[in-house]
Amino acid sequence: MNSTLSSEDLDNDIRIQQVQQTAPDAVQFYIREDLFNNDPYDIIQQKVATFQPILSKDDTRCDQASKDGGKKFEDKKQIKCMRSVGTYVIQQIGRKILSGDMNLTKISFPIKAMIAKSALEKNLQSTIFFPLYINRAVQTVDFMEQLKLVITATIATFHINLSFHKPLNPILGETVEGFLSDGTKLFAEQISHHPPISQFYGIGRDNSYKYFGNYWYEASAGLNSITLKNKGKRTIVFNGGQRIDYNFAYELYSGTIMGSMKVETLGVSTYQTNKGLTATLKFGKVKRKPTDYFEGTINMGQQELCKIFGTYMGYIEFDGVRYWDHRHMQPYQVTIKPPFLPSDAQLRGDYTNLASLDIDKAQIEKENLENLQRHDAKLRTKFKEFRRKKEEKKKQHDHD
């Protein structure tokens, strides 16, 4: 299970860089494919079959871990770019607060502070450790072991996926399709405009498991921070019969205007199974530890069966047995398929122009899409009102 992937490299899996010549005020998104594990299916199966807990016992955190907790963000050029739109965004936040609207997911960000990826694509990144851990879970009949592996596959992604990089907000009806090198098929679709809800669905090779749920974000702003709450749910169902439902903790982005930038996962995440097992993880409350540390338990009713401890910036252990260590486990890349449906995110005008660094045209395309969404929303509201009046009229006619 060892790899030469360094903890510093891990932060570059979703890296953006300042483009000094063509678009000096924008950021560019790219993925270094060499940082991901693209083993073919037969090699993956060998690793799954021979998986063993890690012998390391040291208290390790990757280089991107902030001293006080969370993942730090230090690239000065990228920070300058993202803060260059700060005044504009603050003005919008102020208007919303004065109007009594605290839902910041409706704020429109200038496209120069965004990356050429849809949020639907980022949502699928939650599966980057599935080829190892979920395939291992498929092969065991031990329900508690399955739960441990699902928790591990989830927590191991945090130090990679936590990011200040802002993807494009999906348009209602937008779709994305992808896959993992083990044969897992992945799909995502934006099913609601406001609130913004993204649905996802994954199918393991040979239908060995199903993974589905939704992302539903709410954002609120502090003086120098943004809190992002995901009200969505995730579910994984194994062919053996166990179903695991779990939710999201929340994310705190601090240093948005000044000072050090970092992002933390905080709060509580719970896992419920149809076999009576439950797990609760509490983030940021471990005494004398940075806020990326967590602790929890697996229970059967009121009986505690297992203790959980670790840091999403380094490792996770169950009763002292280490299942994931950032120095030894390499993520698997989610490959996004070329556009097949007209609704594919990669066909959006703002997406394609941002990818080619035509920032001015990308901004125009983004505004056109937002205006079209608002227009469509008004039509839907108008139709609902028309239908309501029609039904009331019919009820009155039937009554008479």
From TrEMBL:
GO cellular component, one term: membrane
Coiled-coil blocks: 352-389
Pfam family for this entry, one: Oxysterol_BP
Keywords recorded for this protein, A-Z: Coiled coil
Alphabetical list of InterPro entries matching this protein: Oxysterol-bd
One annotated GO molecular function: sterol binding
Protein name, per record: Oxysterol binding family protein
Source organism of the structure: Paramecium primaurelia
